[in-house]
User: Fold this.
Amino acid sequence: MTAKVVVLPGDGIGPEIMRSGLEVLHAVAPGQFEFEEHAFGGAAIDATGTALTEETLSACRSADAVLLGAVGGPKWDTTDPNTPRPEQGLLGVRQGLDLFANLRPVRPVPALYDASPLKRAVIERTDLMVVRELTGGIYFGEKTRTDARASDDCVYTTDEIERIARVGFRTARSRVTSVDKANVLETSRLWREVVHEVHGKEFPNIELEHVLVDTAAMRLLAAPRHFDVILTDNMFGDILSDEAAMLTGSIGLLPSASLGESRPGLFEPVHGSAPDIAGTGAANPLAMILSVALMLRRGLDLEAEALAIESAVDKALAEGLRTPDLGGDATTAQATGAVLKYL
Assistant:
């Protein structure tokens, strides 16, 4: 039986890295998938006037998994709240599929320890997961704007916090670090209370610590090995996961998964659309390729195939593969070929 994958190449380097990801997917699991491609983000705005059409959202809902390249670019930048933006497509598909949990694994590759801005002794053996709540909080709250005043409402319910807490505890090996700003924010005080209650009732064998977001940000750079799972809300998770990305030496190496209670999940690289290098062949496809691996593992229960891709990426890097963001000159096609070589 074939699995249906909806492909959303998006903008900038999105289509280029998507080609690399699909090439690797065809190689590791030939004949196991059927694909349906749709315009998304800025490309969809140009074609239809909206970043996410009902047709695309309907296709995503009927899929087994959704694979996304990247969205956005200066062409569509605007401060006019009535003008569509590519990022609205991303928020819309998350909300439309009820993808409330974003998982971002952070594991520096030994071959690239020296590419990190942090010392090798600080980052080696780091292996953490950021579990970010994705459909609530300040990004989705009511927004107001006048010439002299603007506001963004941050709202969380007990149910929203409970379900993301369970994802965090189920993902953890031994410890969950719940990150909030409970000394200032009422939403964070509710967050801390609910996470504490879920821990005591359902996951008492997992260690739980509560850490303020500013302390967590400092500890990520000073002692990243301390973390197993970082559990946090939408905005804090957005910021901390990008900070954690730099432990690897390049944001071009990190995949992510956005999951709900059931399929389909959405899988995408953490990095943006990099319009400045689009079409030059310089884009690093490894985060996209690793997002394919994450899709196989978390979305389709194909663990062996996921491990094969991750092992091939590690071997290619160990043998010296370096794209421009890693200080080398390998092209997108050369990087893809190096991974295929080791599959």
User: Anything to note?
Assistant: Residues 186-202 form the longest helix (17 residues). The chain is about 40% helix and 20% strand.
